[in-house]
Design brief:
Structural class: mainly alpha
Shape: elongated
Strand content: under 5%
Largest sheet: none
Order of helices and strands: HHHHH
Number of strands: 0
């Protein structure tokens, strides 16, 4: 006689239960395999997932942009404040006679620049006059540099 093993069912109800459980497991396995072979559905799922990530990244980018803008505004305000403080400190340190000389020099520069502009309009050929803005800008920059040099040099003495 053969002995029955412990894994074998002993009664018909247990056998039916095991068959039903095996059918259920087999069905789940087949559904899983079918889902893996459905390329279109998998592609759509992946696309939806990537779209969700893109939306998250876009939101994060907008947030970073807003933070950067706020930081830039803050730094700009700080720079303006420090520039105003430096100008005020420089103005306090520059003696009145130097300020007067600088103001007179600036007035002379403005007068000479006006005269140069008029002379330019009267004497320069038309194609050359079209470049007058560049020349005036250079003259103004040179005058400002000379003024800054005089102020700095006098401040060192």
């Amino acid at each position: 006689m053969t002995q029955s093993s412990q894994n074998e069912p002993t009664n018909p109800d247990e056998l039916r239960h095991r068959v039903e459980r095996t059918r259920h497991e087999l069905g789940a396995t087949l559904e899983s395999l079918a889902a893996k072979t459905d390329v279109k559905a998998r592609a759509q799922e992946k696309a939806a997932e990537l779209k969700g990530h893109a939306v998250e990244l876009k939101g994060h980018a907008v947030e970073l942009k807003e933070q950067a803008g706020a930081r830039a505004t803050h730094l700009s305000e700080q720079a303006r404040g420090k520039a105003a403080e430096a100008a005020h400190a420089l103005e306090e340190k520059v003696p009145a006679p130097v300020k007067d000389k600088a103001a007179a020099a600036a007035g002379q520069v403005r007068t000479r620049a006006g005269q140069a502009e008029q002379l330019w309009q009267d004497k320069a050929p038309e194609p050359v006059r079209d470049h007058r803005k560049a020349v005036i800008g250079l003259a103004a920059a040179a005058a400002a540099a000379a003024l800054a040099f005089v102020l700095l040099r006098h401040g060192r003495k």
